[in-house]
Amino acid sequence: MSRNIALCFLVTVACGASAYGRKLECSEHREMECEISNFTIVESMDLSEYEFPDHPHLAFGTYPHSDDSTYVVTIGKELADRLQSTEKLEIQNVSLQRMVLWPNLRSLDASHNYFFELIVEPGQNYQLRELNLSYNRFQSIEFVQALPALRTLDLRHNYLESLSFSLFDMATELWKLNLANNRLQTISTDGSLHLPRLSTLLLHDNLLSVLDASEWRFSMLQELNVARNRLRYLSMCEVNHSFPHLQTLYLDENRWECGHLNATIRQLHQLGVKAMAYYDTEDQEHCNTAIDEICCY
């Protein structure tokens, strides 16, 4: 009788240890992160047989090293629910397209993918602080409204064409915003926008012809980069009132009107703001007129 009880107990333990059938192991390539490679997740794939590591720092793939064995095209709600204990996720260069966000995630680096949809659910208390979505395919970033704890947001090299800064109304902890190398033609604001901690705003390499900062109140902004756009005019009234602690302003490779640029440079000097060229002047096309090495026309 006792032998049957013991056998039953062993079977129960074995079944409990392999509830999902296939346990995914962490590789030994990294010390602090649990790296999973040689694995594929695609749409409508049944993940019920897999047991994912219970680890606070999870990484899919071997980025920055080449890894053609790992594809995580989507992270749906089923998988997101099973990754609740993961607070930091690295998932670069694995062909990711869509992902459901879970509340406990604090840091997400999903750069270098085909990512275009980050799914947030109403009423969730998201804790995400660091978000790197660079080198992806985002055309819209409505999800930002659900992320009030954001501190850094990197959206370099995406497909944004227009953007309302009112999306950042709740992002009062944001201190760095990188929107460089998009296709931005317009940036709008619905009413006054106050981002009390924003220190760095990078808008270079876009298609902006107008930058209306009259409703912005970025009292801690120190660095503003608008290089390589199509700007002709920048109101110093806007800079003085919107960015009272500005230290560095990159202006090169725009279409500045010389009279306005000259007045702007003079007032920048009075405010102690450095007007600088972001790109190497030796690589720029020659221009007939320059003020402080900034071309104008």
TrEMBL record:
It comes from Anopheles coluzzii. Residues 1-21 form the signal peptide. Keywords: Leucine-rich repeat, Repeat, Signal. Transmembrane segments: none annotated. PROSITE patterns: LRR, PROKAR_LIPOPROTEIN. This is Leucine rich immune protein (Coil-less). It comes from the Eukaryota.
